[in-house]
Write a structure and sequence with these properties.
The protein is mainly α. The chain has one domain (about 10-285): Rhodopsin 7-helix transmembrane proteins (Rhopdopsin 7-helix transmembrane proteins, Up-down Bundle). It has eleven helices and two strands; from the N terminus they run αααααααααααββ. The protein has a two-stranded antiparallel sheet with strand order 1-2. The protein starts with 6 loop residues before the first helix and ends in a 7-residue tail after the last strand. Residues about 300-315 and about 325-354 have low confidence and may be disordered.
Length: about 350
């Protein structure tokens, strides 16, 4: 590491430090905004959003407790916080990343129940079951992190109880731990998420086709396109961020640390971290209610200044609408759309706006 003070290496370190700092700030700020939006908006306090809040809290803790130390370690290439804290740091890293992925998994199951069986959704998703699901997430996460690492289940035979040297700090992986952790944390959730989101996509597509027979072709096409883009963004971000990391993780367990290039290992690790910065956008900003809450958070001043003008405009528009309805009331009737997914459901206005 002698030539570390050359101009090119200094420039690369500055670039990396800026990128990592921006990623950490986006992760912290984005998930704080999600928590504030739910805390200050009663409309968002629902069972469905419990998993989104749990995801936001998990990613926020990752951004506060893990990512700063990961960035320092990445830039200095030396762990200087002691061996005891290294065990805590690696355990927190594994626990919060696992909890984040399992929260995404639970969100996919929740949306699958809401779309495929909307009439029974209040019976299927109850406060007790949501609580059990959240407890399940953290039990699995703690078992695969603190319990496994402190008991040496992840260590190789020669270094039981010690996951690192004095200058290095990263999770050791043996064959069994690599396969079990990769299967439970990523590959099984990925398979189920692919199935659930594919079913959701098919239902959205069928719904758009049925609307096509009633309403304009352009409106149905736009709704289908929005559903496709949303689901593609959710699954694409999840796969792009975590698939390289867990592939390298399992390969490390099978072949050892020497088989993986350190640069590749660092890239796939931070690519996985980046998913925590994308989650507030993918799972909150694409939701209409969350967008409204964000606007209320950021535009509260302008809203207070323009509230009188808005109320006057709203009153005028109501008067004009009521007059037009009196002329057209006998000619037009509200249109009810029926969506079949095993049961007959009347789609409320704006139900598919995501």
């Amino acid at each position: 590491m002698a030539p570390s003070d050359t101009p090119s290496s200094i420039a690369s370190k500055i670039t990396i430090s800026v990128v990592l700092t921006i990623l950490i700030l986006i992760t912290v700020a984005g998930n704080v905004i999600v928590c504030l939006a739910v805390g200050l908006n009663r409309r968002l306090r629902s069972l469905t959003n419990c998993f989104i809040v749990s995801l936001a809290i998990t990613d926020l803790l990752l951004g506060l407790l893990v990512l700063p130390f990961s960035a320092i370690y990445q830039l200095s290439c030396n762990w200087s916080f002691g061996q005891i804290f290294c065990n805590i740091y690696t355990s927190l890293d594994v626990m919060l990343c696992t909890a984040s992925i399992l929260n995404l998994f639970m969100i996919s199951l929740d949306r699958y129940c809401a779309v495929t069986d909307p009439l029974r959704y209040p019976v299927l998703v109850t406060p007790v079951r949501v609580t059990i699901s959240l407890v399940f997430i953290w039990v699995i996460s703690i078992t695969l992190s603190f319990l496994s690492i402190h008991l040496g289940w992840n260590s190789r035979n020669k270094t039981i109880g010690s996951n690192h040297t004095t200058s290095q700090c990263k999770v050791q992986v043996n064959e069994v731990y690599g396969l079990v952790d990769g299967l439970v944390t990523f590959y099984l959730p990925l398979l189920i998420m692919c199935v659930t989101y594919y079913r959701i996509f098919k239902i959205a597509r069928d719904q758009a086709k049925r609307i096509n027979h009633i309403s304009s072709w352009n409106s149905a096409t736009i709704k289908e396109h929005k559903a496709t883009v949303t689901l593609a963004a959710v699954m694409g971000a999840f796969i792009i961020c975590w698939f390289p990391y867990f592939t390298v993780f399992v390969y490390r367990g099978l072949r050892g640390d020497e088989a993986i290039n350190e640069v590749i290992e660092a890239i796939v690790l931070w690519l996985g971290y980046a998913n925590s910065a994308l989650n507030p956008i993918l799972y909150a900003a694409l939701n209409r209610d969350f967008r409204t809450a964000y606007q209320q958070l950021f535009c509260c001043r302008s809203t207070s200044h323009n509230s009188r003008d808005t109320s006057l405009r709203f009153t005028d528009s109501q008067v004009s609408r009521s007059e037009s309805r009196n002329h057209k009331g006998q000619e037009e009737k509200p249109l009810k759309l029926q969506v079949w997914s095993g049961t007959e459901v009347t789609a409320p206005q704006g139900a598919t706006d995501r």
